Amino acid sequence: MKKIIILSLLFFLLTGCSSENDVVSIIEKKHSKIAVNYPVTSNNTLNNEISSYVNKIYQEFKNEEKNYQNPELNISYTYKDVNKDIICVGLITEIYTDKEINKIKTFTFDKKNNKFLTMEDVVKDVSALDYVIKKVLLEKYREADMDFLANINYDYFTIDNENLTLYFSPAELKNDNKEIIYLDIPLNSLKLLIDIDKEKNDNTYISIKKKNIDYNKKVVALTFDDGPSKYTKKILDILKEEEACATFFIVGNKALFYKEELQRMIKEGSEIGNHSYSHKWLNRLSENEFKEEINKTQKVIEDITGFTPKIFRPTYGGYSDKLKTYTDLNFILWNVDSEDWKVKNTNKILNNIFKSVKDESIILMHDNHEYSVKALKEIIDNLKNDGYQFVTVSELLEIQNLRNN
Ligand code: ZN
Question: Would you call 202 helix, strand, or coil by DSSP?
Fold first, then answer.
């Protein structure tokens, strides 16, 4: 009950009075694995629709979770400012209980007229589109339900600078894969009613600052998982003030809302690692799904910062050896756990760190938990007093190499 109240409050705080873009992020790993990420946009009508949709799914899942072993809820999103008035949000829900359920929901919203847009508002000739779509779907899914095709609806779609993307549920198309089916229609083949702005490309390359590290002295790597978040800026401010650095294992689908923070990470001598795109439990993913989770995150980080991550931290700390063969990224766990997501108390976080930290430790924290932010200055000061130098994970690996040779 307490959690529901806190959660409702969180929804209210983040959706009720927001003017700037942000992401709501809920990550739980008690009985269930839960990773829910969705955007808070500059428009409250849209925000209310999104949060009540997500809230309903979350509550239903929480009511049911105890009936299953190893249940998982994952909600991730796509976000696009199509032009200065139109926002596109897609929400992808995956639920694993005794079965697998995949759902898609899209919102195409016109801020100027404060209304949700339908396909008729977006495409000039829907009947021409209809003809093409049916042809493509029939070719791809021969078993598709004829009733469905006859009465096809275009409730779920998003637009970006290149494509109109249509989404269909697997049940409708009798697709055994149970995955959401999507079709990209190139915009240049469509007559549109709305204007699409061409993407502004601002991926400036920022080189990593050279640091003066004595590798004969003690080193430690601070790592922050599950960000970026609304706390990231504060973490970066503290690191800068303390002349320290950290490694941020980023969840790709939140990155677009924190471009400035990501750029600062690289510019100010920290490192960015990959923590998947939507924080799914990796052991459930196929090779292709896993690669997609990795590659989408690599791309969004490269686009924003010009930096290519070389390290990966598995979600929930779990993976199989097979997964490691699907990527060149180095899998990085930790050897000191602050348990910041559990303890919610700065003293306990400090205790957890200082009872086990030693030379070459990798310390696990989370940048969406306020108590690690509150404890950060003290953590850094105490480590400095103990003679530690701060390095990124890649620098730590380099130092281990130097020491071993
Ligand atoms: Zn995580």
Answer: coil
What is the token pair recorded at 80?
């696009």
Cα(280) to ligand 1 centroid in Å equals 9
Identify whether 225 is a catalytic site residue.
yes
Which of 22, 110, 225, 340 is catalytic? The answer is: 225
* Residue 201 banded pLDDT, cuts 50, 70, 90: very low
Ligand 1 centre to CA of 79 (Å) is 21
**366, 340 contact by CB (below 8 A):** yes
Tell me the CA–centroid distance for residue 334 and ligand 1, in Å: 12
Contact 386, 223 (CB under 8 A): no
The pLDDT of residue 173 is 63
Query: Is the CATH number of domain 2-117 3.40.190.10?
Result: no
pLDDT in tens, 29-62: 889 999 999 999 989 999 999 999 999 999 999 9
**CA terminus-to-terminus distance, the chain:** 56
Do 91 and 73 touch, CB atoms closer than 8 A? Answer: no
Query: d(Cα 75, Cα 78) in Å, to the nearest integer?
Result: 11
Rounded distance from Cα 192 to ligand 1 centre (Å) = 40
For ligand 1, the distance from its centroid to the CA atom of residue 314, given in whole angstroms, is 7
Q: Which helix (H) or strand (E) holds 80?
A: strand 72-81
| Entry pTM | 0.72
Decide if domain 219-404 falls under CATH 1.10.10.10.
Answer: no
Active-site residue, selected from the candidate residues 22, 226, 340, 366: 366
